[in-house]
Write a structure and sequence with these properties.
Layout lengths: L1 H34 E3 L6 E3 L4 E3 L2 E3 L2 H4 L3
Antiparallel strand pairs: 1-2, 3-4
The structure holds zinc ion.
The site of zinc ion has 8 residues, from loops.
């Protein structure tokens, strides 16, 4: 009986840990997809922080943004 309880606890902890990890991974993936935009000129994928926004277009660098 003690063994069974221990097994249940271990299973519970394992599931909890596994679920947490899975959730974190998918969240990270969603965030990566969300933050990457193709440059309007050269189509390089840039993150939201690095992107240069000009009107409704997104550029990867100042050089690409020159044509805007
Ligand atoms: Zn570019």
């Amino acid at each position: 009986m003690k063994f069974l309880v221990l097994l249940l606890i271990i299973t519970f902890i394992y599931l909890l840990f596994f679920k947490k990890r899975e959730k974190r991974n998918s969240e990270k993936l969603d965030r990566d997809i969300e933050e990457l935009y193709p440059c309007s000129k050269c189509e390089t994928l840039v993150s939201k922080q690095d992107a240069i926004v000009c009107g409704n277009k997104i550029y990867c660098s100042k050089e690409c943004a020159k044509s805007c």
